[in-house]
């Protein structure tokens, strides 16, 4: 795929094994992930039992071009994946994002609600931050070192196969919590683990309080796609398929 700003994006289509062949679930992975990561492939395998699945690698990740902007221009990558799903003939396209991908699905739903090809019929954000620049946990302080320091970006490239943009955001993009009120009437699900080492539970509660949303706080769950078990992934798929705008 190519984004509207010309970045080449790696994407994979998995046909529905059974269930709702008219629906596509577009999966947005977390920071340093990719379409080839085992946790993403596992999630795609579970989702394919319910619907068609599109996985892709954000810019700067995997085999995609460009450099990661850590949630800013990644909205364009997701928009390209949603539009590809529609071009394949899917009547309903829904999105699920993990961690950084969770922030992206929220901002995409808020900014593409009126788009014909780019809109999504339901959104699930898993382990997503509510606000930018959060450094309240040790894992997030390490993430900020990876992003903001030259040595960190080198580690990102060599150790995590993630190429990170060196420039600061300008302007600062709409935050996830600011995006939530703009998503309605598109159904929104917020999923978060009560043992998430990156973002404590005030993040999902802030997101859910910002607009119409369903909140699932999962007991014992850690962070993002690596911590999401098959049972939870199945519940998310069920919710995405059944969700409809409120009358």
UniProtKB/TrEMBL annotation:
SUPFAM superfamilies: alpha/beta-Hydrolases
Span of domain AB hydrolase-1: 25-224
Domain of life: Bacteria
Pfam families (UniProt xref): Abhydrolase_6
Record keyword Ligase present: no
GO molecular function: hydrolase activity
Keywords, in A-Z order: Hydrolase
InterPro entries: AB_hydrolase, AB_hydrolase_1, AB_hydrolase_fold
Keyword Electron transport carried by entry: no
Protein name stated in the entry: Alpha/beta hydrolase
Organism of this sequence: Streptomyces xanthochromogenes
Taxonomic classification: Bacteria, Bacillati, Actinomycetota, Actinomycetes, Kitasatosporales
């Amino acid at each position: 795929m190519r984004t509207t700003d010309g970045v080449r994006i790696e994407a994979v289509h998995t046909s529905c094994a059974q269930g709702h062949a008219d629906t596509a679930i577009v999966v947005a992975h977390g920071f340093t992930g990719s379409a080839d990561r085992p946790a993403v492939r596992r999630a795609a395998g579970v989702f394919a039992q319910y619907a068609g699945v599109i996985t892709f690698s954000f810019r700067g990740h995997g085999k995609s071009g460009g450099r990661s902007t850590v949630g800013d221009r990644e909205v364009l990558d997701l928009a390209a994946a949603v539009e590809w799903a529609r071009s394949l003939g899917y009547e309903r396209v829904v999105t699920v994002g993990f961690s950084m991908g969770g922030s992206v699905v929220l901002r995409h739903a808020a900014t593409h609600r009126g788009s014909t090809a780019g809109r999504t019929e339901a959104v699930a954000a898993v382990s997503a931050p509510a606000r930018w620049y959060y450094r309240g946990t040790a894992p997030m302080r390490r993430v900020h070192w990876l992003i903001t320091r030259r040595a960190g970006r080198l580690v990102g490239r060599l150790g995590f196969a993630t190429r990170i943009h060196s420039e600061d955001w300008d302007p600062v993009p709409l935050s996830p919590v600011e995006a939530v009120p703009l998503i309605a009437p598109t159904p929104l699900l917020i999923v978060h683990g009560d043992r998430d080492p990156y973002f404590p539970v005030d993040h999902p509660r802030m997101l859910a309080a910002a607009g119409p949303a369903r909140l699932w706080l999962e007991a014992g769950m850690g962070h993002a796609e690596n911590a999401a078990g098959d049972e939870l992934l199945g519940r998310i798929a069920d919710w995405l398929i059944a969700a409809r705008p409120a009358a």
